[in-house]
Amino acid sequence: MDIQMENTVSGSTSMRTYHLTTTDTVSVYTSNFYPASFDASFVLPTSVLRDEYMVQTWECNNEDWPSQFLVLAVEDSTIVDIVPTANCQNSVFQGNRLTVSLRQGQCILLKNRDVDQDFSGTTIKSRNCKPIAVINGNVNVRIPSTAEYGDRLYEQAVPTAYWGKEFIVTRSGYHNGDRVKCTSLQDNCELRVNGQIVDTIDAGESYIFTIDVDHPTASIKGSKPICVYSYMVSKSYTIPHGDPSMVFEAPIEQQLNDVVFVNYTHDGQLTSFFFVNVSTRTDNVQNMYLDGTPIGSEFHTVNGDPDYSYAIITSTAGSHRLYSTGPTGFVSRSYGVGENESFGYSDGFATRIQSVWMSINDRINLTSEDTFHICLGDSLLFRAGSNTEYDSIGWNFGDGTGATENNIIHTFQSAGLFYTEVTLERTQTDCFDATDTSLRATIGTYVMVHEPMFVTQDTSACDSLIFKDIVYYRDSVDTSYYTNVWGCDSTVETTINVSRSYETTWNMNIYEGDSLIWIDGNTYGDSVTTGTVNLQTVDGCDSIIHLNMTLIPRPEAPIIDSFALWVPNAFTPDRSTNQGFRISCYDILSAKVYVFNRWGLQVAEFDGLTQGWDGCYKGKPCPNGAYTYLVEYIAKANPQYIHREKGTVLLIR
After folding, report:
1. How far apart are the first and last CA of the chain?
2. Which has the higher per-residue pLDDT, 532 or 267?
3. Residue 305, Cα to own-chain centre: how many angstroms?
4. How many C-beta atoms lie closer than 10 Å to residue 143's C-beta?
5. 357-381, pLDDT tens digit by residue?
6. SS3 13
């Protein structure tokens, strides 16, 4: 459909507009054509138009080629307030507010007056929430200003409610380079390009950089909502074809899953090259189709953001369908390059409100992919806001509590992971259709509440222990206080166990002519009477036992009752009967009993006539097993003779 209309006088209002309605869902695009000068734009449906806009244009580099914008009313009695960032040709000065009343279908055009100025950052707001449309661009412009040729720029502005914070921008095909211009909606916007902070800009300010053949992509992230436009450079600027064109770059947050777009021709002047640039998540490229043909093999990873990939695809004149069969959508733009001019436009985007934000302790831009870590007992300041008007706010802190005010101080009463969200809503019925769900926006993030840590640990050593540069010679407890990785005050309690090494001597009598196989495996007798063995205690401490044998004459063996001594072969200290190891004696003057473990360590010594062994060593129960005993006793029949009896007793628990 070819509809001719033109607005030329700055500050004038006119009715040179058309209202298009259809019986089916359609994509609508419009062009701005003049001989040897051409650009195009998407057209937003009236149902998604809103009341707040901010303009972006290119700097005017010729007094006859100003930057410009047009405001169009959708309803009667629409009052619009405009604050331009450049002097206007109709004597409206930079920074002064212009208020204009428009009827349905009526529009006003403004052009800037001075070279080296443009309207970027100009704010436009209608009263009483009435929807308006805004077109921005330039009558003609050279990019850069030193280039020889220029072209007009033309693109419908996007309501600030749909601006985003993340963008993937790709260079234009058959062009050596593009300029990318980012404009901030709010003050103190930290701007990152390919992960690097490049600038911090305030509301209405812009940042410009270049993408080219060597740097064909850029990942852009703002800490506040921004709008991004890409501009093709002039034909004479190291390229053989085309001229400037202006394209709105859709935010990643506004991805589509299916769109139909059209490539223009006009009187044979745009016949050379057509392209469509597509960006999607890397894990979604195999789900991308153009006119029913898979295009996954066309994609390359985005510089600075490998989670996303892009494709620059050669296209043709006419209509095309681009779609994703996966759960992830895409952003795309279409453009054409002719001998003397170019055109370009965004293929479209979703219209979700993206300007809602929340902060905790003034850390802004928190989303559901973030986790805010705190310590139990910390108080947090919760704030939220939007670049659109709202009249109610509701908090759900995820712990069973909430609030209906802003700037809320909240303290979580228990540790854990809590999903905190805030809902902003505008319930006025005189703004938009009350069923418009875009008037209600929710954003949330995770809060992880950590408990202070209390850790107990044991450390042991033999004889002495150096802990935290202090030497310990006995058992002790050390308490340390520290701040863990989340900043929570924590405690570590260390129990220090210091065991002992031992050195002892066994004095034993042995009759001349007898021999003894000791615990070290050596035989001792007339020729060898001393020995040493290295052992470990039950605590693992190295110890030494010395053997000192005394050879004594062997007396004549008296005749004694063979039943004078009885030794049990087992005992059960943990049971109700047979709890101790005791010997029984008859006609014996004295008896000394020694008990050794399997490694030869003496674990007990007692008087056999009056005492016994309870199965413990230094107060600690000995383990199950066989133990060696040695009984030295003197019988009444021959008090000059020492009898010895060895054997094993089984300890059973």
Report:
1. 101
2. 532
3. 15
4. 26
5. 788 988 876 777 788 998 888 899 9
6. strand
